[in-house]
Amino acid sequence: MSHEPEQRTERPTPERVGGFEFTVRPAEPTPDGRARWAARADALASWLLAEWRRETAGEAA
């Protein structure tokens, strides 16, 4: 078993959502990329917690 990153040779498959088609590809690392990902993770976690609180408050009422 190798711990080397898997090399993909096929092209990413486009995804379709409604009338939009998009393809997600990894970008090259940048110096501020880690900070951006951390900020996005914090924002997502805050939003998820707020949604959970909103939903559970409705159940308790």
Detailed description of the structure:
This protein has 61 residues and is mainly α. It has a domain at 33-61. 46% of the residues lie in helices and 10% in strands. It contains one helix and two strands, in the order E-E-H. The protein has one helix at residues 33-60, and strands at 15-17, 20-22. The chain has a two-stranded antiparallel ribbon with strand order 1-2. Strand 1 and strand 2 form a beta hairpin. The radius of gyration is 18 Å and the shape is flat. The model has no long low-confidence stretch (mean pLDDT 83).
Content of β-strand? 5-15%
Question: Roughly how much helix do the residues carry, as a percent range?
Answer: 40-55%
Rounded to the nearest angstrom, the radius of gyration is 18 Å
What is the count of helical runs? 1
Distance between the termini: 53 Å
Task: Give the secondary structure arrangement, pairings included.
Elements: E1 15-17, E2 20-22, H1 33-60
Notable traits:
1 helix, 10% strand
Question: Could you write a compact summary of the structure shown?
Answer:
This protein is mostly helical and 61 residues long.
